[in-house]
Structure formats: C-alpha cells, structure tokens
C-alpha cells in the first residue's frame, strides 16, 4: 500500500518537473535518468519503512505477550496444599452427653476388654480430643504427615505419624511410621469424619476402638478400570489385639495384616467398594481387669494367637453423582475373630492365686449403617450394631478349679445397639450432630445415650477418603 | 510374606509393560479439559473425564473408579487453583503413579497458564469457600482455552515425542478454528456489553468479563454457601431497585433458588451449559460457547 502511494507521489513529482518545450533526446534521457534515480531512492525508503513497520509490529507482539506473561505471573500465587509448607489444620470437637449409666464403668460383656479408648463420651459437657494435623511433601519422593491428638486433660499422643512414597510407579505406595491400619473400613477413617459420635461396637470389641500400628504398609493398585488394591502391613503389634501395650521387646514383627478391595461405579450415580481383610497377631501377656467371684479386682492375661477376618462394604449414591443436594451412604462391616492360647488368672495373686489354663474363643460382630442427606447441609442416619460372643472355652473353668463367675466379663452375651443421628453441616468445615442410642453392651438394663456434638476443622482443606 | 511381595511385584510389572504399549492416557478433572485434550490429541490418546457437567467439581468423592483411572494416567489436566482440593490430593497420594504428581510433566493445571481474576485480598474461611489463587473457572473465557491448548500441545509433544508432529498439526488446526470462532462469538456477544446478570456461583466470572457484562449479584450469599431465604429476599429487593437482565445457573446447581428469584422479579432464569455436556447442544467446546451465547441472546430480545 505504501509502495503504491509513494510511486504515485514520485510520478507526480516527475510530472511537475519542468519539461522543455522542445524535447531533445539528451534531455529526455536525462529526465529518464533522474526518474530512475528518484524511483530508486523512494524504493530504498519504502524498503526501510517496511522494515521499520515489521520491526515495530514484532515489538508490539512481544509487548502483548510480555503483558500476558506478567498478568499470569501477577495472578499466580504459590500453588500447593497451602501457601505455607506444611499444610496445617486443627480439629476441635466437644460433646454434651446424657447417659443413663456411668461411661467410666463401660464394658462390652462377652468380649475381652481391649483396655483401649472404647468408652462413650463422658456425661455432661466435655471437650473431646483436639487433633493437630501437619502434612506436606517432604521432597520429590516422599510425603509426610503427623496427626497429634491432644487429650482434654493434657498430654499429647501421636495418633498417626508416617511418611509415604510419592515417587513410586506401577501403582505401588509404601507407608512407614504409625498409621491407622487398613483392616476393615472405618478403622482408617479419622474420628472427625465418622458419621456417628462413637465407633461401631465391632471396632470397639475387635480393634480397641481404632487400631493404629507402628509399621510398614505396602499397597498396590491394579492397572484395571475396576479398582482393585492389595495391601500388606507388618507392624509392631503395639495395641489390642496385639500387646502388651507398647509392643513386645522383640526383633521383627508383632502383627501382620492383609487387605484387598475392589470398587467401581454403577452408572453415574452409584459408587461401591468391597473389602476383605485379615489381621494376625500373637499377644504375649495381654492383660485385662475383671472382678472375680469373691468380688476382688483381678488382673488376667492372655498369651497365644489372635486371628481376625473382616469383610466391609460401602455404597454411595447421589443423583448423577452430584452429592451437593441429596445423597445416600450405606456402610457395613463384619468381623470374625478366633483366639487360642493360655489364659492366666489373677496375675498379681490378689485373690485365689495365679493359675494358667487353656483359652479358646470364636466370636463375631457386625454393624450396618445408612446416612441420608435429605437437603443441603442436613443428614439423618441410623446404625445397628450387633456382637456375638460365640463360644469361649476357658480351661480353668472346665476342671472345676474356678467357675465361670470368676470371669464375669467373658460370660456369654450378645451386645447390640441402635443409634440414630441428625447432623447439620453449614459448610465442609463444621458439623453439629445430635445422636440418640440405646446400648445393650452390658448385662442387664440398657444404656440410653444422648449426645450433642460439634466437630470443626480450621486451616488447610482436608480431603476425605471414599 | 516375601513370596506375596514377589508375586505382587511381578503382577505389577507385567501390567505396567502392557500399559507401555497403550495410547497416552489423559485424566481430565473437568469435561472442558477432557474435550480440549480430545481436540488436540485426537486418536493418539484415551481421554477420561473424572466429572460430568452435572457434578460440582468442588465436591467430588475420591471414588475407587477415579483412583483406578488416575493410577494409569500419563497426563492430568485439571483447572487447579484449589477447585479440586477436596478430592484430587487424595487421588494423587493413592494413585501410586509418579508421572502425574505435582511438578511432573504429566501434571497440568490449566488455571496456572492464564491470568486469574478475583484473587481475594483477604483469605479467611468466614468469607465462604474462596480460592486464594483466584477464580478457578477459567474456561468460561474462550481466549483462556486457546492459551491452555497451546500449553497442552507442548506437554503432549513432550510426553509423547513420537507423535509430536501430529500434536502440533492438530493444535494449529484447532487454534485456527478457535480464533475464527472467538471472532464470531465476540461479534455475536457485542450486544451483551454492560448487561447486568445475576449468577448462582461465581463460575461465569471470566465469561462476564470477556463479554463486558456486569455481575449484579449472586444467589449464594458467600462462595460455596447455598442460597439462604434471607439472602434471596435481599436480592429480590435489590432487583426491584436495579433489575438485572437475566439470572444464570449451572446444570449442577439446584434450580429452585434461581426460579424463586425469577418468579418474584420477572427476570428470566436460564440454565447455561457451563461446560461440555451441560446440555444437548453443548457437545463440544465450540457447541458450548455457541450455546452459551445463543442462550444469552435469546433473553435479550
């Protein structure tokens, strides 16, 4: 375009040049020469102009690109689990309890006391365990997490403290440290994410409430569209059903767990998962307290082997997989435990003298629960718990040295419990829950329990497992 | 125990060899990125979208099926800026897949590639479910998609150099079509300039900004907090004083609040597709914007 314009100008200049009236050849030649020179000059100028235009266009493009880059950078913040490293969150919870029977004297009759945290929340107002959660990637290979439980009466307990691989491939993940065991389903779920205020009776009777093991976990996820995982845990055996408390002074391992899950989707609305798990330990001198036939408090202990099998299932439904308004969650677990070995009565010789005999038990228990979110923020739930004390053979009772009345807590009893709850979660970070339960864990009259509870989390956004 | 470990390792290895010969596996957190990956990778990749237009990407369960998919993924394309914070970190730690971890070439956060808006000055949970990194719903501005497409094509070429030429070719072809479409949308959307709109959640902010529209309010009292009667009553009053032209919501939102406000104020409520698959016409990215603009223009008459 410029070229054409300038040519026109050149032509005009040429025309306006004084032409001799008597045109001579030499003069014409001169004019032609001048015109040619003029043309050359203008062409050079045009070229220079074009070059400048191209340069400035490129510059403008670069400036635009630079402006975009600057805007992208300006709107960027350090991306990560938190602007801080590590991610930090605190979980606060508290309850108002109203119980017919004293929770301090709580026991599940028919089952060996686990000496764990299995009692219902206290009567009246109380602060629950506060949790402090710190987690971050350690480097390009590992990730670490520490979850400390601060007891309301003081004292800090490491609930979980583990490192986990990030860099492994082929579906493998290895965890080392202290972690909630993968046995069953609910065991690996943190208390603040439970759908009821307290643990299922089966978890209380077979896993001492919640089993956290010091050990190593290897988990492998299959490369299939159907979710399949296989896991192996080797642990210290530091808690029930292992023990003595803290674990034996022994090289090697005190407990072993195997688990496998399969899961998938049924259409867009339903997701499911089924699991099988097995936990085996060899408790040495696992003690518990009881009151014998003379009314004396005695300490008994068990040495032998303990085998626990579990089946768990979970099904979640939400219309089109959008759980925001309404959703349903069904969950159930079944456990079966066999223990065999020796039971020592009255280890402290406080009553009828220390005696040892054989011990053998086959026991089971299950629970099933359903939680329905009927509108945003509001959920209702029902849970049924049932335990079967099954058959317990106590060698010391058979020859008649002692009577069944000397082992009252092991006497046959099938505990059961019904719980209903209503909870309100104004956001993902807070929840208020009202729970009513009738608990037949103990012989005799049932315990009526009412809990009003809050669970709140501050800080980094936590992600909850399926 | 040792034999079990060996068997596990063997099974794992054999499966991973089988995987090596399959096409590139792309795991998209949202349907728009799944659609974009499909445009650029074509038949060179198997694309899986973790969510649908009917699901709220803020609130997704870390389902077993998602873990199974992410375990075999070679490339992860997600909006990022903490949109998926409730589920993606869990999938990543459970995946046993090092290729798609944060910082690896197989991890692509779309929102990091563009200029984000609505970066909060104050970050506190009392302000609702806000994103410290800015609004993550960047795909509602078609120009952002063009930018992500470029980065995605480079990433695909990096991960699968054998098909680099194919990715470059497809990306350039898509880019040309997309630029032409943007021109078309901008011409069509010129009438939307300065039009006041009420949103449900702030998931159309980039679109509103692109078209020069004006956000006149949101049905959520605070981001991520469902509409409350008090807030809706307030909006009704506000709309009487300064009426908006249209109320919009996404397929994953409960339509009742929008309909309530519409009935009380006479302002039309429109469900926009929001992302690919959000309605019958939004079958791909082109359809998504054609449909979104058409729906807006329909209420402007």
Characteristic key phrases:
heterodimer, A: about 475 residues, alpha+beta, Porin, 16-stranded antiparallel β-barrel, about 45% strand, disordered N terminus, B: about 300 residues, alpha/beta, Rossmann fold, 2 domains, 4-stranded parallel β-sheet
Task: Describe the protein.
The complex is a heterodimer of chains A (466) and B (301). By secondary structure, chain A is α+β, with helices and mostly antiparallel strands. Chain A folds into 2 domains: 2-74; 98-459, Porin (Beta Barrel), CATH 2.40.160. Chain A has 3 helices and 18 strands. Chain A has helices at residues 2-16, 25-74, 201-207; strands at residues 87-99, 124-127, 130-137, 142-150, 156-165, 172-180, 212-221, 227-235, 255-266, 270-281, 286-291, 297-317, 327-345, 355-375, 378-394, 416-427, 430-439, 447-459. In chain A, strands 1-3-4-5-6-7-8-9-10-12-13-14-15-16-17-18 form a 16-stranded antiparallel barrel. In chain A, strand 9 and strand 10 form a beta hairpin. Chain B is α/β, with parallel strands linked by helices and 301 residues long. Chain B has 10 helices and 8 strands. In chain B, the strands form 2 sheets. A 4-stranded parallel β-sheet of chain B has the order 2-1-3-4, covered by helices on one side. Chain B has a 4-stranded parallel β-sheet with strand order 6-5-7-8, with helices on both faces. In chain B, helix 5 (142-159) runs antiparallel to helix 6 and helix 8 (229-241) runs parallel beside helix 9. The longest helix of chain B has 25 residues, at 164-188. Chain B is globular, with a radius of gyration of 21 Å. Mean pLDDT of chain B is 91; it is low at 13-22. Chains A and B meet through helix 2, strand 7, strand 8, strand 9 and strand 10 of A and helix 1, helix 3 and helix 4 of B.
């Amino acid at each position: 375009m410029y070229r054409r314009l300038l040519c026109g100008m050149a032509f005009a200049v040429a025309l306006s040049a004084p032409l001799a009236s008597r045109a001579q050849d030499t003069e014409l030649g001169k004019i032609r020469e001048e015109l040619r020179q003029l043309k050359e000059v203008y062409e050079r100028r045009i070229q220079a102009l074009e070059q400048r235009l191209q340069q400035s266009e490129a510059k403008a493009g670069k400036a635009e690109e630079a402006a975009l880059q600057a805007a992208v950078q300006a709107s960027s913040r350090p991306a990560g689990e938190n602007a801080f490293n590590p991610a930090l969150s605190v979980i606060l919870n508290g309850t108002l309890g109203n119980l017919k029977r004293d929770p301090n004297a709580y026991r599940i009759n028919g089952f060996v006391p686990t000496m764990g945290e299995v009692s219902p929340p206290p009567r009246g107002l109380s602060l629950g365990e506060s949790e402090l959660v710190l987690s971050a990637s350690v480097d390009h290979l590992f990730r670490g997490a520490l979850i400390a439980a601060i007891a309301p009466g003081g004292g800090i307990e490491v609930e979980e403290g583990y490192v986990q691989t990030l860099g492994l491939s082929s579906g493998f993940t290895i965890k080392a440290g202290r972690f909630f065991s993968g046995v069953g389903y609910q065991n690996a779920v943190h208390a603040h994410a439970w759908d009821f205020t307290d643990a299922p009776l089966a978890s209380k009777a077979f896993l001492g409430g919640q089993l956290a093991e010091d050990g190593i976990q290897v988990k492998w996820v299959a490369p299939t569209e159907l979710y399949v995982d296989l896991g192996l845990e080797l642990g210290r055996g530091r808690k029930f059903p292992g023990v003595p408390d803290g674990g034996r002074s022994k090289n090697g391992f005190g407990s072993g767990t195997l688990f496998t899950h399969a899961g998938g989707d049924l259409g867009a609305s339903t997701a499911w998962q089924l699991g099988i798990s097995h936990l085996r330990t060899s408790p040495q001198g696992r003690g518990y307290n009881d009151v014998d036939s003379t009314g004396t408090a005695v300490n008994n202990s068990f040495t032998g082997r303990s085998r626990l099998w579990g089946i768990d299932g979970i099904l979640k439904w939400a219309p089109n997989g959008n759980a925001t308004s309404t959703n349903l969650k069904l969950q159930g677990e079944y456990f079966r435990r066999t223990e065999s070995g020796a039971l020592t009565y009255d280890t402290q010789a406080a009553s009828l003298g220390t005696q040892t005999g054989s011990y053998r038990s086959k026991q089971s228990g299950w629970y099933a629960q359903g939680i329905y979110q009927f509108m945003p923020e509001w959920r209702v739930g029902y849970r049924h718990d049932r335990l079967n004390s099954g058959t317990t053979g106590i060698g010391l009772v058979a020859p008649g040295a002692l009577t069944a009345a000397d082992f009252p807590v092991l006497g046959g009893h099938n505990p059961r419990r019904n719980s209903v709850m209503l909870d309100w979660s104004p956001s993902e970070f807070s929840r208020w829950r009202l729970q009513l339960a009738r608990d037949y864990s103990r012989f005799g009259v049932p315990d009526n329990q009412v809990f009003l509870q809050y669970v709140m989390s501050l800080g980094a956004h936590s992600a909850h497992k399926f | 125990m040792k034999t079990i470990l060996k068997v596990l390792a063997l099974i794992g290895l054999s499966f991973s060899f089988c995987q090596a010969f399959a096409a590139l596996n792309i795991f998209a957190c949202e349907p728009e990125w799944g659609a974009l990956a499909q445009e650029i990778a074509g038949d060179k990749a198997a694309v899986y979208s973790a969510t649908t237009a009917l699901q709220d990407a803020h609130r997704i369960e870390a389902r077993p099926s998602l873990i199974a998919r992410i375990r075999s993924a070679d490339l992860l394309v997600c909006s990022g800026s903490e949109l998926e914070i409730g589920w993606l970190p869990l999938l990543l730690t459970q995946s046993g897949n090092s290729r798609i971890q944060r910082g690896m070439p197989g991890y692509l956060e779309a929102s990091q590639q563009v200029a984000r808006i609505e970066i909060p000055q104050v970050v506190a949970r009392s302000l609702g479910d806000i994103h410290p990194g800015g609004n993550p719903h960047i795909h509602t501005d078609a120009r952002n998609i063009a930018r992500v497409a470029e980065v995605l094509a480079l990433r695909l070429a990096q991960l699968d150099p054998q098909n680099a030429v194919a990715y470059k070719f497809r990306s350039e072809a898509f880019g040309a079509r997309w630029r032409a479409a943007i021109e078309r949308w901008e011409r069509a959307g010129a009438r939307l300039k300065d039009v006041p709109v009420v949103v449900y959640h702030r998931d159309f902010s980039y679109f509103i900004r692109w078209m020069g529209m004006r956000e006149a309010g949101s049905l959520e009292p605070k981001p991520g907090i469902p509409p409350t009667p008090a807030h809706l009553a307030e909006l009704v009053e506000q709309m009487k004083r300064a009426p908006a032209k249209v109320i919009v919501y996404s397929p994953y939102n409960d339509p009742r609040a929008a309909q309530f406000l519409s009935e009380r104020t006479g302002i039309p409520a429109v469900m926009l597709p929001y992302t690919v698959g959000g309605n019958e016409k939004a079958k791909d990215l082109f359809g998504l914007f054609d449909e979104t603009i058409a729906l807006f223009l329909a209420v402007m008459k």
